[in-house]
């Protein structure tokens, strides 16, 4: 008899807000919103909101000004990436130090605040995964003073989805046995990998729930959504995922920077200068990777909120800041200059690392 394959998904609760509360204990229990420079009168978006702030309807990605209207008593704080990097590193080091079944865990880091854990090779008895999940929660809290939730699944997809049911500070298990019972009548957006745009495409095919997606014709999905994505969405509906927990370090394909301007840029000479400044910052990012840029892209958001993007492939890879800035600015020639600019972004896609991704 084959032993049950377990995957755990660890997700820190309200991570950024929690880190800020640790630094400022007097904020515990208060609505806390982190975003931009911490000034809700400026342009910027919410990076995270504490659970108390979410009760007022504040959510990630929301303009700070709207968040202030929804939660006028909230405490607004600026983003401090270095603090979050440090806290995340402590959490991941704690997870990486764990053993499961007598051998070190396999840890796949997904970002600042989440990771997958799997059992290492030649492990012994894994025991009850719920007990190990609670052990994880205790170790993380002891080492970092941060709370987390843990999802248990018989694959990565189910473990990832299970975590949402366990939040906050809980453990939840989702497997093939309870998949239909738990997920069947939920909207397709409840699936990891399906957003609002895809959900609308599925709805146009008469598919609104997870069960309807699972029972749909994969050939129809392939015809309407593509030969790769269509069958993949069909597998999502059934909770199928065969991908392993992979401890390989994440290698970025690109780096980018964006800036939202407090006053719209009306003069296109100022726009070009801002693009050059952003490009030089991104060049510093790719220099740390040790790989030159092969492709350049810009994003321009006009007033009130219309966004366009343009890109080009370079004649030859380079990390020369002047050449890359010239290339980024040249893309402005492919943009209609009939509105003021409220946001600019520059993205540099790097050459593949040795051995590929």
Describe this structure in words.
The chain is α+β, with helices and mostly antiparallel strands. Helices cover 37% and strands 24% of the residues. It is built from 13 helices and 14 strands. The strands form 4 sheets. The protein has a 5-stranded mixed beta sheet with strand order 7-8-1-9-10. Strands 11-14-12-13 form a 4-stranded antiparallel beta sheet, covered by helices on one side. Strand 7 and strand 8 form a beta hairpin. The radius of gyration is 23 Å and the shape is globular. The mean pLDDT is 95.
Short key terms for the protein model shown above:
single chain; 4-stranded antiparallel beta sheet; globular; alpha+beta; 357 residues
Number of strands: 14
Put simply, the count of helices is 13
Overall pLDDT score: 95
Class from helix and strand fractions: alpha+beta
- Label the overall shape: globular
- First-to-last CA distance: 36 Å
Q: In which order are the strands of the major sheet placed?
A: 7-8-1-9-10
Give the radius of gyration. 23 Å
